[in-house]
Amino acid sequence: MRPLEAKGGKRPKPTALGALASFKSCLRRASLLASGRRSGYGSFRRRTSQEVTSAAIYVHLPFCPYICPYCDFAKVRWERGLAASYLAALRAEIERAPAVRGSTVFFGGGTPNTYPATELAALVTLLRDRFQIASDAEITFEANPDPALTEHLETLRGAGATRLSFGVQSFVARELQALGRRHTHGDVALAVRRARAARFTNVSLDLMFGVPHQTEASWRESLAAALALGPEHISAYGLTIEEGTPYKTWFDREPQAFADDTREARLYEIAIETLLDAGYEHYEISNFAKPGFRSRHNATYWRNDEYLGFGVGAASYRDGVRSVHTRDVAEYIANASGAIPGESEALEGDARVGEAVMLALRTSEGVDFAAFRERYAVDMPSRFAVVLAELSDAGLAIVDESGLRLTMRGRFVANDVCGAFLAEA
């Protein structure tokens, strides 16, 4: 999962179903609370001691074999020469990074497995050496299930990758065509078989609801097909629309082709019911896992812990400062050895507290009052007494002496709930 990103984008109308998009859209919204400033991003603020701290590592590989019409990630079509220059720039940025112990690693994109597996394996080795990554650390690759891109998964496993996240979105041919995806149901099954043959014991599948032409029956078909492949983890995201994408043009021309809020809510409800019945934990608004297979990397974001991001459009959070690189590939390559253009902001005071609450509420555990008081010096029961009472009375949250967590009803309007804390902070 990529910090400061969303699976599609923000739909150009108010909707509580925005809460059903990935964590990254919420994080993007929270980052606007403080006044961002343009800055050279060539260096991190240094600590005063020689302490080596822990941080999650995110690496962005923006190249794709083709561009999907709904996607607003930092991405470009594959071009061998440009991809080689980008890889050299990425290595230069990694080499000059601050000393941290890498707790987890996540390769996102784009389509990371557009690169040859040997080059990806070399990146894993570089990160292991540079960031003291433990031998049992979770190392995830996002991957396109197209057959030509999944032929050498054993090379990734041999380099230490432990987890694959396949961008499936749908198992229904008509929906895949609408999404601009070229793989088939059979291709996904082959990708999972190849992952198992390569000794991957942790496989995640991304699914999307609210897709044009999708019905309750076809959504159930995709969920059943995913479950039949036995993945350890499933992410279910609501389709959202981003400015500047072909989907935004389509939405403006034919809004009735897209799911309205009522249908999206029903599809989300079907996903929850189906996956819970299949034994998955609904541990975060958009994420479901078999016991023991929650994403350790994504937990870093929800706990508001530190992470370092490398590559175009990548975000970092360190020493209370959140930063994001330029999304321009050429600009990134030209500056990777020096000050990479981008934006940064210091999250302090109310903005920091509001964001921490927002992120924690996306998880099934919610907010632990004692831990929150120790970390942020804020007593939530007194600071947010009115909000907590309103949420409890409305049946949107469970509030007791130990903490706060959303009810199932509250998860359907998570953005509104989060907004209440952001307004009060």
Structure summary, number of beta strands: 18
Enumerate the spans where pLDDT stays under 50 for 5 or more consecutive residues: 2-49
Oligomer: single chain
> How can the largest sheet be summarized?
9 strands, mixed
Folded structure, characterized:
The structure is a single chain. The chain has 425 residues and is an alpha/beta fold. The protein contains 17 helices and 18 strands. The strands form four sheets. Strands 10-11-9-8-7-6-5-2-12 form a nine-stranded mixed β-sheet, with helices on both faces. Helix 2 (80-95) packs across helix 11, helix 3 packs parallel to helix 4 (153-159) and helix 12 packs antiparallel against helix 17. The longest helix is centred in the middle third of the chain and has 17 residues, at 261-277. The protein starts with 22 loop residues before the first helix and ends with a helix. Residues 2-49 have low confidence and may be disordered.
What's this model, at a glance?
This protein is 40% helix and 21% strand.
